[in-house]
Amino acid sequence: APASAWAAAPAAAHAAAAARGDRVLALAARRLSKREAAGVASGKLRASDVEQGAQIVGLALFRSAAHKDSSEAVELLHAAGIRTCVITGDALGTGVWAARECGVLGKRAR
After folding, report:
1. What is the H or E stretch that residue 36 is in?
2. Residue-wise over 44-82: b if at least 16 C-beta within 10 A, else e?
3. Does pTM top 0.70 for this prediction?
4. Is residue 107 within 8 Å of residue 100, measured between CB atoms?
5. Residue in 37, 15, 36, 35 with CA at minimum distance from that of residue 24
6. Dist. CA 61–CA 49, nearest whole Å
7. pLDDT digits (tens, 9 = 90+) for 55-110
8. Which partner from 17, 32, 101, 110 sits 20 to 30 angstroms from 50, CA to CA?
9. If you ran DSSP here, which 8-state letter would residue 3 be given?
10. H or E element at residue 35
11. HSE on the CB side for 64, CA within 13 Å?
């Protein structure tokens, strides 16, 4: 496959995993020169100083199910006329999944 197709694969995998409610952690690596490795070990270089050029080598997925009582709490809020929303630092797809799981968003809403 062309390099551009492979480069798009992690983004597509992330989007699919987030839509299932997974938290996604990208794993990247590159070889460090002896000088760079010594700089990181001594604290003279930060990770951000040497992460340029790293390539994604995989994705770690973590599943975190919605609390069992979340849907009931959202139903009670809706019944009381209280508008609900989800605020998250997760990927958009993960937030949408969470909103659907607990009833903030309808199962078919976009």
Report:
1. helix 34-42
2. ebeeeebeeeeebeeeeeeeeebeeeeeeebeeeeeeee
3. no
4. yes
5. 15
6. 26
7. 888 888 888 778 889 999 999 999 999 999 888 888 888 888 889 889 998 866 66
8. 17
9. H
10. helix 34-42
11. 8
Amino acid found at 42:
S
- 89-105 in b/e burial notation, b at 16+ Cβ within 10 A? ebbebbbbbbbbbbbbb
What are the DSSP calls for 62-106, one per residue? EE-PPPTTHHHHHHHHHHTT-------SS-HHHHHHHHHHHTSS-
- The structure tokens listed for 65 are 């199910």
Token pair, residue 76, equals 């009670």
